Amino acid sequence: MITVNNKVYESYDSKRNLAEWLREELYLTGTKIGCGIGVCGSCTILVEGEAKRSCLLKLENVEGKSITTIEGLSAADGTLHPLQQAFVDAGAIQCGFCTPGMVLSALALLLKNHHPTRREIRQALQGNICRCTGYQQIVDAVERAAKIMYPRTITNDTK
Fold it and tell me: In this predicted model, what pLDDT tens digit does every residue of 89-129 receive, in sequence order?
């Protein structure tokens, strides 16, 4: 049993490549296959909230686990997740090939660290290659999303 975007799948070849299965059997084509050797980050998905390279995994590696692909982020009505919207707003999507992997790597970071520094954002994204944006807009987008997703509360402690 594998859960993908909150839907349970029970029948599959456990030796099959995860990235190919997501694309070819589930038609979740947001998971891109770039290099096929885990270097470019285009195939990044979340497994139990952790960023993983799906091109390096077999289905048996994710048995009993919950997977989130880029298609699992937006709301049922099509409203983008705040992180996706931040990528759009910051101009961080250019050609779009790397974007799903970037977004999911960034989400894995934000789930653990609600207010990362720009350096921490860059470190979290270092395994994702982008040929179009120069990365600045991507870092800006993650920073923007963090502020929206996890607003800091200001307390007046005037005792």
Answer: 999 998 889 999 999 999 999 999 999 999 999 999 999 99
Long-range contacts of the stretch 27-35 (C-beta < 8 A, 24+): 28/4, 28/69, 28/70, 28/71, 30/69, 30/70, 30/71, 30/100, 31/69, 31/70, 31/100, 32/97, 32/98, 32/100, 32/101, 34/97, 34/98, 34/129
Q: What is d(CA 36, CA 52) in angstroms, rounded to the nearest whole number?
A: 13
* Alpha-carbon gap, residue 146 to 65, rounded angstroms: 26
Distance CA 131, CA 112 (A): 27
Rounded CA separation 21/102 (Å): 20
Q: How many domains does the chain have?
A: 1
Q: Give the torsion through C-alpha atoms of 37, 85, 112, 62, to 10 deg.
A: -40
Token output for 142? 């993650």
Task: Give the CATH number of the domain where residue 13 resides.
Answer: 1.10.150.120
pTM over 0.90: yes
Q: What range does the domain containing 58 cover?
A: 2-149
